[in-house]
Write a structure and sequence with these properties.
This protein has 147 residues and is mainly alpha-helical. It has three domains: 1-52, Winged helix-like DNA-binding domain superfamily/Winged helix DNA-binding domain (Arc Repressor Mutant, subunit A, Orthogonal Bundle); 54-97; 99-143, Arc Repressor Mutant, subunit A. 69% of the residues lie in helices and 0% in strands. The protein contains nine helices and no strands. It has helices at residues 7-17, 22-29, 36-48, 54-65, 71-80, 85-97, 99-110, 118-130, 135-143. Helix 7 (99-110) crosses helix 9. The radius of gyration is 20 Å and the shape is elongated. The termini are far apart.
Length: 147
């Protein structure tokens, strides 16, 4: 007979696989906690021991998302994961530094050539906008002539 894993073991198992936000870990552990107070105490202990870190999670998540998305989308995703506004803005700030180069690379992979008409230009702009790139960056890319 397999013994039931403790709440702490479950939390450490989740954290061993990847970084989690506090709210994400809380949601995953809630069905296994005896009480909300027990869960809050465990989460506070993990934060005190630096096993659970909002800033580490934000940095790791932003790093993964920078391959496909712009700073606005990254910040929105982090806020949806329960990260504070300040930590999300800080992680997105790092992505803004290389936003033009990343957007240009994504645009090249997807389209490869400048738009021939306004309809195609609008389609390309919508694609980049949906990826969370700023309108300033999108305009620079769509005006970019040296392919």
């Amino acid at each position: 007979m397999q013994r039931e894993r403790s709440l702490r073991e479950r939390a450490l198992g989740f954290l061993a696989r990847r970084e989690h936000s506090r709210s994400e870990l809380r949601r995953k552990l809630a069905p296994h906690a005896a009480s909300p107070e027990e869960l809050d105490a465990l989460l506070e202990d993990l934060i005190q021991r630096k096993l659970l870190s909002e800033s580490r999670f934000a940095e790791a998540r932003a790093h993964v998302l920078t391959r496909k998305f712009g700073a606005a989308r990254i910040e929105h995703d982090l806020r949806a994961k329960g990260i504070s506004k300040e930590a999300a803005a800080s992680a997105a700030r790092e992505a803004r530094i290389t936003e033009f180069e990343r957007a240009l690379e994504i645009w090249r992979r997807k389209f490869g050539a400048p738009a021939m008409d306004l309809k195609e230009r609008a389609r390309q702009a919508r694609f980049l906008l949906a990826r969370g790139f700023s309108t300033d960056v999108i305009n620079r890319i769509l005006r970019h002539k040296d392919e």
